[in-house]
Amino acid sequence: IRVRDEGHARQLAEQREEIERLREQKVQADQASEMLKTATQSLHAVRKENAQVRRDLAEQIGESERWRSMYHESQRVYEELQSMSTQTKTTVSSQVKQLRVQRDRAIQEASSLRSKVSLLQSVLKNMQRLMLVRVQQLRSEHDAFRDEVQSMLTTSVS
Predict the structure, then answer these.
(1) Using CA atoms, how far apart are residues 120 and 33, in angstroms rounded to an integer?
(2) Which site among 32, 38, 41, 112 is 20 to 30 Å from 14 CA-CA?
(3) What CA–CA distance (Å, rounded) separates 102 from 121?
């Protein structure tokens, strides 16, 4: 009986170690979940910035259209408006290029974040599945062990 008790004690110790490993995996899964939240927040921020870039671009295009309209309407101040129009076109073109670069960066970042979010979700799901399987195994082993100890106790009482 002592040998069995020692064997069961070792089994319990191994199960405790396994439970501790599972707890560590849960902590890792929680950390992955936090990373997922952070990535999602970053994605929302990038989308918000992208919307602002679009508004700025539309505003710059609208400004350019106003300048063109003024040019056609004001023949008597043609020379002055020609100079202003050229300046404005250069500025708008530069700003449009900058906004396009920003938009392209935002799109790339959003795509990268989507990939990371997808990967993190997949990792998290796999870890959860593995943890559930292991918890079920431990429960089964615990139930079997409890039944065996109960049987031994019943046998030794009688």
Answers:
(1) 8
(2) 32
(3) 28
Across 27-118, the runs of DSSP E, i.e. the strands, are none
Q: Which pLDDT belongs to residue 32?
A: 95
User: Which of 64, 36, 61, 54 lies closest to 107 in space, CA to CA?
Assistant: 54
**Ranges of the chain whose pLDDT falls below 50:** none
In eight-state DSSP terms, residue 74 is: -
DSSP string, 105-147: HHHHHHHHHHHHHHHHHHHHHHHHHHHHHHHHHHHHHHHHHHH
Residue 3: per-residue pLDDT: 61
Asked if 82 and 71 touch (Cβ cutoff 8 Å), the reply is yes
